[in-house]
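TA notes, week 10

Several of you asked for a full example with nothing omitted. So below is the full record: structure tokens for the whole chain, then the designed sequence directly under it. When grading your own attempts, check the secondary structure regions first.
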């Protein structure tokens, strides 16, 4: 028990010594205060929690009533009005930064949904717009 108290007393003395040396170094004190307050606050508020005017494109290979309903489901101000593009335009348009999200609706999508199957859609995300890509990809 005596050894434990001696160890705790040593730790206390070292802690007080470090605090005094920190108090005498204003640059280090400023950096510590900055890193644990201003930098944390800035990083926490810099990324929006909602999408704002996200450019969207849709490749509609089904051209059905269901895919048209999906097309109209992207509302402002979160999304810009979706553009219709071809499958060949997906990569060049994403690479050029024209769209952040490109939704690809496969052929026979409505027929498969009505038949009870679970068709898949593809969502291509341009991750160079990090905050929108992170929020938009779900």
């Amino acid at each position: 028990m005596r050894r434990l108290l001696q160890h705790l007393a040593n730790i206390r003395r070292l802690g007080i010594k470090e605090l005094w040396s920190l108090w005498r170094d204003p640059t280090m004190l400023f950096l510590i205060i900055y890193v644990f307050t201003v930098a944390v606050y800035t990083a926490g508020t810099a990324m929006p929690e909602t999408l704002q005017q996200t450019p969207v494109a849709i490749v509609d290979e089904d051209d059905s009533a269901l895919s048209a309903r999906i097309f109209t489901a992207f509302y402002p101000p979160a999304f810009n009005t979706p553009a219709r593009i071809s499958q060949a335009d997906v990569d060049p348009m994403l690479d050029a930064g024209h769209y952040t999200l490109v939704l690809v609706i496969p052929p026979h999508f409505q027929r498969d949904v009505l038949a009870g199957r679970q068709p898949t859609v593809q969502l291509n995300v341009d991750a160079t717009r990090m905050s929108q890509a992170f929020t938009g990809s779900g």
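The chain has two domains: 2-46, 56-136. Use that as a sanity check on your answer.
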